[in-house]
Amino acid sequence: MCTTISIKDDLLVEAKAAATRTGQTADAFIEDAIRRHLDAIKISDPGPPVDPILSGPSPGLDRENADALLETMKFGLGVGG
Alpha-carbon distance 24 to 80, whole Å? Predict the structure, then answer.
């Protein structure tokens, strides 16, 4: 697929120079950089947020202690270790 994207001039010059130093075409270098960045995001991405209502109470949360529940709701204290 051929797609046109906008890249700041100074970044493109730097990418082309790096591509030349590594023996790649600018296209291959940029594709590789995007792929590496996407892979890094996949590794560090914890996934979708968990809905606390659907997943139940957090470990250690005492639903019978209204004061502790209120403090946890206000300050997030005592939940999740």
Answer: 47
49-71: b or e for each residue (b if 16 or more CB lie within 10 Å)? eeeeeeeeeeeeeeeeeeebeee
Q: How many alpha carbons fall within 13 Å on the CB side of residue 8?
A: 3
Each residue's pLDDT, cut to its tens digit, for the chain (81 residues) gives 788 889 999 999 999 999 999 999 999 999 999 999 988 887 776 677 766 666 566 666 666 777 777 777 776 654 444
Residue with the two structure tokens 């206000």: 74
